[in-house]
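FAQ: What does a ligand-bound record look like?

Like this one, built around heme C:
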Amino acid sequence: MNTIRKHAGKFALGVLLVAGFNAAGAQAPAAAETCTGCHNDNGITDSAEIPTIAGVGGFFLENQLAIFAESERPCVAEGFADEDAENHCALISQLSEDDRMAIAEYFGELSYQPFEQEVDESLAAQGESIHNASCDRCHTASGAEPFDDAGILAGQPIPYLVDQFEYYKAGERWQPESMAEEMQKLDADQMKALAHFYAGAWE
Ligand code: HEC
Ligand code: HEC
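The answer part, i.e. the structure of the complex:
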């Protein structure tokens, strides 16, 4: 059903020739128009508070949209004052399930790029040992593997990562139970070290 719709769209747009070569040739679904002001057309962030959503995995993205729609993770309100929605969760909850799927598929297939930032090597080394002991079994390849269905941590902005660690520790964002056990143990210094490790972990 999805495949048929997608191909029909490409015929209609006359971009069939490039479609096979490069996912960036795909058109953003109309429903993504409200997203690109912050997430950009290519899903690559240029803000330290916003994660890159390109190439992080369609299944993971679909889950995040469901989680936002249910307000099962914090609903950032900054930047939404002039939008049709009062915060991130409200905006996502207005989307139909088909729109959410199309958006997740679109951004999920684009190419990932790490955020440019300065990494403290000594903090990163401390973070790496915490990662190996507590996170690596689910976030393989230093958090760079989209097929883990656990997002991409490698190359995400440090402030964004620290925010998420805090949300998880405080139980403010949905997470698998055995991840919650690991997040409980982290103090502020360890969170900072982990964030520096992931920030420099994209190869
Ligand atoms: C006003 C800016 C803004 C708009 C508009 C916006 N976002 Fe976001 N988005 C953010 C911020 C900021 C975060 C990080 C939230 C946090 O720290 O918890 C985020 C996080 C996300 C995430 C989580 C990614 C991850 O790795 O966990 C997804 C998915 C997402 N947004 C999708 C969307 C979609 C789809 C739309 C459009 C329907 C949209 N966003 C519109 C600012 C925005
Ligand atoms: C039992 C497996 C498991 C363990 C252990 C685990 N995680 Fe996760 N993690 C996941 C899954 C699954 C998700 C995706 C959750 C979702 O779909 O909302 C996730 C999501 C995340 C995210 C959100 C990424 C984003 O862009 O939104 C962060 C950050 C994170 N984990 C950090 C960690 C850290 C740091 C550790 C170690 C201290 C850890 N995780 C240990 C399974 C795990």
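Follow-up question: can I read anything off the structure? Yes, for example: The pocket of heme C (ligand 2) is lined by residues 51, 60, 63, 67, 134-135, 137-139, 150-151, 153, 161, 164, 174-176, 178-179, 182-183, 194 (CB under 6 Å).
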